[in-house]
Write a structure and sequence with these properties.
Layout lengths: L1 E2 L6 E2 L39 H7 L1 H5 L8 H6 L4 H34 L3 E4 L4 E4 L2 H30 L15 H11 L2
Helix pairs in contact: 4-5, 4-6
């Protein structure tokens, strides 16, 4: 009888590969006793940084908090960072508003288009649909709000990269979703 030099499992004579791990078996150099596997040490836990060290180490991660669904990266990857938690809360509020606004915008756009349908007009050698004035006004309003969301996200990214823990304009005072984020962090840190 031979033993596998990799995992120490007993291998029958004439077998060329270990049935347990698939390592080629060298029949001539079989050890007298099975090898004992040493347990691998567990990966070290993420160190908890505080103060300026936390800010310096997590600036890039905190900036991801303002890029929509990418806020999940610092939420899970830097769950012990107080600096990232602040920016994740801000980004979560911004992303929730953006999602709600998009849903409301498209619903109202459909209603406005149903009430004030586009008209068929004759242009240069062809017909085209001209949107109603209400649709044009609603599109302008939606565009302005969308641009505002992007500007606020850029302000948040700049604050995160500069190492500042400032609240966002308009959205920084909305703390409605912060308890939810705190519960997520509490569950992650168990």
């Amino acid at each position: 009888m031979a033993f596998c030099k990799n995992c120490g499992a007993q291998v029958e004579d004439g077998i060329k590969f270990c049935a347990s791990c698939g390592t080629p078996v060298d029949q001539q150099a079989a050890p007298a006793q099975p090898a004992v596997q040493q347990a691998q040490p567990a990966a070290p836990a993420q160190p908890v940084l505080t103060g300026e060290a936390d800010v310096q180490a997590n600036k890039g991660m905190a900036a991801l908090s303002y890029l929509g669904i990418l806020l999940l990266v610092p939420l899970f990857a830097r769950k012990n960072s107080e600096y990232c938690q602040h920016h994740v809360k801000q980004g979560f509020t911004l992303a929730a508003f953006s999602l709600c606004f998009s849903i409301v915008y498209f619903i109202l756009n459909a209603i406005i288009s149903a009430i004030f349908p586009p008209t068929l007009k004759y242009g240069f050698l062809t017909y085209y649909y001209a949107p109603s004035a209400a649709s044009v006004i609603w599109s302008i309003i939606g565009g302005i709000i969308s641009i505002g969301i992007v500007v606020v996200a850029i302000i948040g990214i700049v604050n995160a990269v500069k190492g500042e823990k400032k609240d966002l304009p308009i959205f920084g005072s909305i703390k409605l979703l912060h308890p939810l984020v705190d519960k997520i962090y509490a569950a992650l840190n168990k």
